[in-house]
Amino acid sequence: xxxxxxxxxxxxxxxxxxxxxxxxxxxxxxxxxxxxxxxxxxxxxxxxxxxxxxxxxxxxxxxxxxxxxxxxxxxxxxxxxxxxxxxxxxxxxxxxxxxxxxxxxxxxxxxxxxxxxxxxxxxxxxxxxxxxxxxxxxxxxxxxxxxxxxxxxxxxxxxxxxxxxxxxxxxxxxxxxxxxxxxxxxxxxxxxxxxxxxxxxxxxxxxxxxxxxxxxxxxxxxxxxxxxxxxxxxxxxxxxxxxxxxxxxxxxxxxx
Length: 256
Ligand SMILES: C[S@@+](CC[C@H](N)C(=O)[O-])C[C@H]1O[C@@H](n2cnc3c(N)ncnc32)[C@H](O)[C@@H]1O
Known about the structure:
Layout: H1 48-61, E1 62-64, H2 72-76, E2 83-87, H3 93-98, E3 106-111, H4 114-126, E4 132-136, H5 139-146, E5 152-158, H6 176-185, E6 186-196, H7 199-208, E7 215-219, H8 236-243, E8 249-255
Parallel strand pairs: 1-4, 2-3, 2-5, 3-4, 5-6
Antiparallel strand pairs: 6-8, 7-8
Bound molecules: S-adenosylmethionine.
């Protein structure tokens, strides 16, 4: 892995990612990783209220992808609590609904889309939720650059972008390399939880459930899972899926 090509962000307090080509770690595992270029850093506009909220609270509750490992205890102001990374939190519907039920857990939501983060920030501030922090950036890079081996108790990926066209399948976040990277970041006994409502993506994941030797596939449900697995809410995307009679598939793995 080569991290030397990473240059620090330009305006760390603003939640803005640097312009130009996004950083992509060169992995030397021979496994498959989602390729960006694809993922556009959608600008999206914040409402005036969201801007004000962002200016006030982002510096404390959020940070940008960079090469500084996250000091979880310092960021959450407490020691020894389990930490879960949610990749692609969207507007944070599940994140904000689950976090109050897992107050002992540190939840870090990773998302590229600033308006989504602004919405979650609003929920966190209004709901006085103490156990959520946010990182703006690509989840693969956040895992690779900001978390050391064996530092996470859980990773969640709920309704990842399905990239339905065959020529875009390589953009899907669930790939052999991502599963390997997640496995290295999880502690022994740590859990990966994935959900999708996209039948074709489910078939894709079905083919990958046993591909990573460090992850034991537990299927769904797994009543003895050591973390909260009930997502609590029907998300926007899940709701759309249900309208179309899509079936929701959930997947759990444990780090050996
Ligand atoms: C289909 S939405 C699902 C959002 C949310 N999990 C839900 O269930 O409502 C997928 C989200 O993943 C985000 N995303 C896609 N690729 C990502 C990446 N590489 N790192 C972080 N977030 C990503 C997108 O911006 C989008 O908000």
